[in-house]
Write a structure and sequence with these properties.
The chain has 350 residues and is α/β, with parallel strands linked by helices. It folds into two domains: 2-64 and 72-126, Leucine Dehydrogenase, chain A, domain 1 (Rossmann fold, 3-Layer(aba) Sandwich); 146-345, NAD(P)-binding Rossmann-like Domain (Rossmann fold). The protein is 42% helix and 16% strand. Strands 1, 2, 3, 4, 5, 6 and 7 form a seven-stranded mixed β-sheet that branches. The chain is globular and about 55 Å long. 53% of the residues are buried. The structure holds nicotinamide-adenine-dinucleotide. Nicotinamide-adenine-dinucleotide binds next to α4 and α5.
Length: 350
């Protein structure tokens, strides 16, 4: 295995990991350890080329710095990406090599599951290095993060509804939920319990019918969910859903959902603001998942109070960001970035 260190401006460490015998090509990026060891999942995808993989790892690791800081966690931002089709190209030997590559960073980067990776894959890497979270079993194993992510999204919808719609409780509101996977399904259950009406969509029609039956929601086609008339739109599927094309079609007062990278560009946050739609920044809304993973990395003995305290802190951060955005009449997405950058600047080494 060959590990090459790439010198990339703005990043503490970037490794290019290659082993042709194992058909392994991967990048590990440590964006920042200013707040603590860098933490962020490992993703495996059939990237078009090496440049696309490097671009993704840089973007995602930086995103983790922001997400971890917003969640008030003592963790920095990092990410790993592996080039290949997870269904055909992954092997135990490849995962073991990745574990050894992570070990060379001596705990400056912690990995966990992301797209194309499973708890079983994490276990293979954990045999080579202790810096692996997202394990299915073990003393501090944190398991599936999505119920905690959904709790955070539910809280964020509460904050957003209060501010955008002057509602103190969610009962009677209509929420349009896009994507009914791990996060979306848990979220729908909580919203239904709180008395919300639901409009739902998933590209898996069977899943949409099942969740709608369970939560009393109305199913619409995947390409119709964005333009549904509702109080809040909750994207819980893919990134880039809020863009120049979709935003003019929105018929909601607010957007708050679990999906990562909802804005195609930061300008789309401005566009939402100009349309009078309150946007709850995604990396604050969906921080519950990393809070859950953090309990494993930080070996938290008493998980529930830790999770609850950090979810409360996320809510408070969201309140602050939305209030500042209102005072300054600017997009909450820009205020969120600025808020996190201020937290990081405070921790700048002397
Ligand atoms: P998932 O794969 O379990 O679910 C995604 C669902 O969306 C699937 O049911 C899929 O069929 C559906 N879908 C895909 N494209 C769609 C489209 N165009 N329209 C409608 N439905 C579509 O994923 P998840 O774990 O629920 O994560 C959902 C989003 O939340 C992702 O963006 C993920 O990165 C983000 N997120 C998840 C967590 C977590 O704890 N799982 C934490 C933070 C962020």
């Amino acid at each position: 295995m060959k590990i090459e260190r790439l010198d990339i401006d703005g990043y503490e460490e970037v490794l290019r990991v290659e082993d042709p015998d194992l058909r392994l090509l991967a990048f590990i990026a440590v964006h920042s350890t200013r707040l603590g060891p860098a933490a962020g999942g490992m993703r495996m995808r059939p990237y078009a080329d090496e440049r696309a993989a490097l671009h993704d790892v840089l973007r995602l690791s930086r995103g983790m710095t922001y997400k971890n800081a917003a969640a008030d966690l003592p963790l920095g931002g990092g990410k790993a990406v592996v080039v290949g089709d997870p269904a055909h190209d992954k092997s135990p030997a490849m995962l073991a090599a990745l574990g050894r590559a992570i070990a060379t960073l001596d705990g400056r980067y912690w990995t966990a599951e992301d797209m194309g990776m499973s708890p079983e894959d994490m276990a293979v890497m954990a045999a080579e290095t202790p810096y692996v979270a997202g394990l299915a079993s073990g003393q501090f194993a944190s398991g599936d993060p999505s119920p905690i992510t959904a709790r955070g999204v539910f809280n964020a919808i509460g904050v957003t509804a209060r501010r955008a719609l002057a509602r103190t409780d969610l009962s009677g509101l209509t929420i349009a939920v896009q994507g009914l996977g791990h996060v979306g399904e848990h979220l729908c259950r909580q919203l239904a319990d709180a008395g919300c009406g639901l409009i739902v969509a998933d590209t898996d029609a069977g899943r949409a019918d099942r969740v709608a039956r369970g939560c009393g929601g109305q199913v619409v086609a995947p390409d119709e969910i964005v333009a549904q008339g509702a109080d809040v739109f909750a994207p819980c599927a893919v990134g880039g859903i809020l863009n120049e094309r979709s935003i003019p079609t929105l018929k909601v007062g607010a957007v708050a959902g679990g999906a990562n990278n909802q804005l195609e560009t930061l300008d789309d946050g401005d566009r939402l603001h100009a349309h009078g739609i309150l946007y709850a920044p995604d990396y604050i809304v969906n921080g519950g998942g990393i809070i859950n993973v953090a309990t494993e990395i930080l070996r938290v003995e008493d998980r529930e109070p830790y999770v609850t305290r950090h979810l409360k802190s996320l809510e408070a951060t969201l309140e602050r960001v939305l209030e500042t955005a209102k005072q300054e009449d600017v997009s909450p997405a820009r205020v969120a970035d600025r808020t996190v950058e201020a937290i990081l600047a405070e921790k700048r080494p002397a």
